[in-house]
Amino acid sequence: MKSPISPDRLKELRRRNRLSQGELAERSLISKDTISRLERGVLPGNRNHTIDQLSKALEVPPGVLTGELPLPDAGKGRRRESRRQVPVRISGSALNALQLVSHRYQVPMIRVLEIAPVLFLFAAEESLDWRRQNLRSMKAAYQMRRKFSHLNVGFLPEKDADRLIAEEEKSISQNDILAETIPDSVSGAKTYSNETNPFSSYLAEKSMNYSEDLIWGLDFGKEYTSYFACSGDALDIAGGDEMAQEWILMSEFLLSDIPKHLWADDALPERLAWMEAEATSANKPDDDIAAVLESEA
Fold first, then answer.
1. Pair 46, 157 in one domain
2. For residues 244 and 240, what is the distance between their CA atoms, to the nearest angstrom?
3. Residues 199, 147 share a domain
4. Residue 50 C-alpha from the chain's centroid
5. What are the backbone angles phi and psi of residue 228, rounded to the nearest 5°?
6. What is residue 294's DSSP assignment?
7. How far apart are CA 26 and CA 108, in angstroms?
8. How far, CA to CA in Å, does 206 sit from each of 127, 210, 211, 251?
9. Torsion-angle region of 97 (φ positive above 0: left; ψ -120 to 50: alpha; else: beta)
10. Which CA distances in Å does 237 have to 92, 112, 167?
11. Same domain assignment for residues 60 and 193
12. Does 292 lie in the same domain as 211?
C-alpha cells in the first residue's frame, strides 16, 4: 500500500489546475465528498486506486501527491486551457433546457455547453448537405421539364430557375446556413427575414425523428432561438403536474434556483409549492448562465 495522500499537496495541486472539488471529482471518478475529506485530512488516502486516479487527473506522479516527490515548479508542464466566466445572458427557457438535458443524460451542464460548438458544427454541415440534396432534386425537376416542355412542370420561367439555382449554390458554397446572401429580388426565393430560414427548416425536420417529449417547437434565427426540450423530464420533475411542467418549460423560474433539499423524492409537495410561489411572483429569473453553472458546482 502506498504512502497516504498529503492533504496540503492535494489542495495545492487542485488549485494549480484551477479545478473545483467537483471538477476534480469528474476527472478522477473519485467522489467530491471523498476529495473534500482527503483535503481536510479526515481520510488517510492510502488506497492505491484513489492515489492513482487522482494523480492521473492532476497529471503528476503519485509520489508528488503523497509528498515523496517535490512539487513541480508552478507554470511548468502541460499548459491547461484557461477557464473564464463570460458575462452572457440567455433566455430562461434555454437555461432550463440546459439543466433538463443535464438531468436526463446525467452529464454536468458545463460539459453540455463545452460540446455545444461541435454539435452546432455537425448540424450546420448536415443542413448544407440537406440543401445540396434538395438542390439536386430541384435541378432534376427542371431537366425533366425541358424534356416535357408541353407539361406544366415547375413554377418558374427557365431563366429565373437558373438564377435561383445559381444563388442557392453560391449560398451553400459560402456556408451561408441562413441563406442571407440570396437576394430577395430573385424570383422563387423566400424572404428569409420574414420566413423560416433553411437551417431552421432542417432542424425542424430533424426534430421530427424524435418524440415531442424530447424536442418540439424548434426555430432558429440570428436574433432568436426557440424550442422546448425534455418536456417529459420536466413533467417528472413536476411530479406529473402539467401546470408545473409548463412553468418549467416557459421559464417562470430557473430550475437551478430550486433549493437543493426540495429535489428529494419525498419533497414533491414542498417543491410544487415553491414552484407555484415563484411562477406567480412578479420577479422574473435572472438569466445569467454563469450563475446557473455556479449553482451546479
1. no
2. 8
3. yes
4. 31
5. -125, 120
6. H
7. 9
8. 10, 8, 11, 25
9. alpha
10. 17, 20, 48
11. no
12. yes
Residues 6 or more apart whose CB falls under 8 angstroms from that of 70 comprise 64
Coil, strand or helix at 225: strand
Count, residues in the chain: 297
Residues 228 and 98 in one domain: yes
Does pTM top 0.70 for this prediction? no
Angstrom distances, CA of residue 292 to CA of 116, 248, 264, 272: 17, 15, 20, 20
Q: Which three cell numbers stand for residue 228?
A: 422546448
**H or E segment and range at residue 94:** helix 92-105
Structural domain boundaries enclosing 216: 92-108+206-296
SS (H, E, C) 169-190: HHHHHCCCCCCCCCCCCCCCCC
All cell numbers assigned to 296: 451546479
pLDDT over 80 at 268, yes or no: yes
- Which residue in this structure is represented by grid cell 415563484? 278
- Three-state DSSP class for residue 192: coil
Taking only the tens place, the pLDDT of each residue in 27-67 is 888 888 888 888 888 877 677 888 888 988 898 998 898 88
Residues 210 and 104 in one domain: yes
Residue 3 DSSP SS3: coil
pLDDT digits (tens, 9 = 90+) for 212-244: 999 998 999 888 888 999 999 999 999 999 999
Same domain (yes/no): 127, 197: yes
**How far apart are the C-alpha atoms of 61 and 58, rounded to whole Å?**
9
> Can you name the residues that pair with 219 across neighbouring β-strands?
226
Task: Give yes or no for a contact between 133 and 143, defined as CB atoms under 8 angstroms apart.
Answer: no
Are residues 168 and 223 located together in one domain of the fold?
no
Q: Supply 40's cell numbers.
A: 481536510
Report the C-alpha gap between 127 and 120 in whole angstroms.
10
